[in-house]
UniProtKB/TrEMBL annotation:
Transmembrane segments: none
Main localization (coarse): mitochondrion
One Pfam family linked to the record: CR6_interact
Family per record: Belongs to the mitochondrion-specific ribosomal protein mL64 family.
Keywords for this protein: Cell cycle, Coiled coil, Mitochondrion, Nucleus, Ribonucleoprotein, Ribosomal protein
GO-annotated cellular components: mitochondrion; nucleus; ribonucleoprotein complex; ribosome
Region annotation Disordered: where it falls in the sequence: 247-267
Annotated organism of origin: Takifugu flavidus (sansaifugu)
Job of this protein: Acts as a negative regulator of G1 to S cell cycle phase progression by inhibiting cyclin-dependent kinases. Inhibitory effects are additive with GADD45 proteins but also occur in the absence of GADD45 proteins. Acts as a repressor of the orphan nuclear receptor NR4A1 by inhibiting AB domain-mediated transcriptional activity. May be involved in the hormone-mediated regulation of NR4A1 transcriptional activity. May play a role in mitochondrial protein synthesis.
PANTHER family: GROWTH ARREST AND DNA DAMAGE-INDUCIBLE PROTEINS-INTERACTING PROTEIN 1 GADD45GIP1 (PTHR31761), LARGE RIBOSOMAL SUBUNIT PROTEIN ML64 (PTHR31761:SF1)
Highest taxon in the source lineage: Eukaryota
Compartments where located: Mitochondrion; Nucleus
The name this protein goes by in its record: Large ribosomal subunit protein mL64
């Protein structure tokens, strides 16, 4: 697409006389900044180029005149658009009995569209477009679901606010109860932590004592994973259980007042 810009009337036919008249008029227009001879020569060259460009346009090209601040703008289109196949005089009414008619043009929705566009000229009875009882029930149910009356909306809002208030009060009560239990929970946690530390310390001391006893018994350091060490630990635990059992028996007999007989050497 090309543009040729030059100030000239849109209804003027480009001839040699017109070109001369344009040269004269343009010369008088540009006398303020150029000399008369230079202005006439320059404008005559431009008019000659413009004449050749317009005469060289083919029949298939379209010339469009557009107004611009600098003058008149010629716009040439180098394509021929195909005409639209529209029947504006007569409306398109599909034949429902024809196999070539698409299925979507045979529906009641398309009939409503045709009647809304062409009215009685579509040949469609408005009574046939009225929804059936089942469709009316569906429309009413959908309207009640998505567009309920104001009273029902107010009831729903009230119920939702009541539910939110109950949830908030229950949460506040739970927080208050937990805050009241907080000192006891902290004390229990500290006690449990202290008990774990004590048990860990006792286990370490017992392990060190067993390793020292094994070293004293065998005369050298023993691997705590070896069978000798595990047998020694099992024997020591058995003796400790016997001592605890004897101590409980002695305490029980002292409470009753009967004499305590020590276990025999065979046992």
């Amino acid at each position: 697409m090309s543009y040729i810009c030059y100030p000239f009337p849109s209804t003027t036919k480009l001839t040699s006389i017109t070109a001369v008249n344009l040269c004269a008029a343009a010369t008088n227009h540009f006398l303020g900044s150029f000399s008369k001879k230079m202005a006439a020569s320059m404008l005559c060259k431009r008019v000659a180029m413009l004449t050749r460009a317009i005469n060289g346009l083919s029949v298939s090209k379209t010339v469009i005149t557009v107004k611009s601040p600098n003058g008149l703008l010629l716009q040439t289109a180098s394509y021929n658009p195909k005409p639209l196949k529209l029947n504006i005089k007569e409306p398109y009414i599909p034949d429902k009995n024809s196999e070539k008619t698409p299925e979507w043009q045979k529906t009641a929705r398309y009939d409503s569209k045709l009647y809304g566009r062409y009215g009685s000229a579509s040949g469609i009875s408005p009574e046939s477009l009225w929804p059936s009882h089942k469709q009316l029930e569906s429309i009413i149910a959908e309207e009640n679901e998505w567009h309920p009356p104001l009273e029902e909306m107010l009831k729903n809002i009230e119920a939702r606010e009541k539910e939110e208030t109950e949830k908030r009060l229950a949460r506040e009560k739970l927080i208050a109860d937990n805050m009241a239990k907080m000192p006891k929970m902290i004390a229990d946690w500290r006690k449990e932590k202290h008990e774990k530390k004590r048990k860990l310390k006792e286990e370490k001391a017992r392990r060190a004592r067993l390793l020292a006893e094994a070293k004293e018994r065998f005369g050298h350091a023993v691997d705590p994973r070896s069978s000798k060490f595990l047998e020694m630990v099992a024997e020591i635990e058995k003796e400790e259980k016997k001592k605890k059992k004897l101590l409980k028996r002695r305490l029980r007999m002292e409470q009753v007042g009967a004499p305590v007989t020590p276990p025999s050497a065979a046992s």
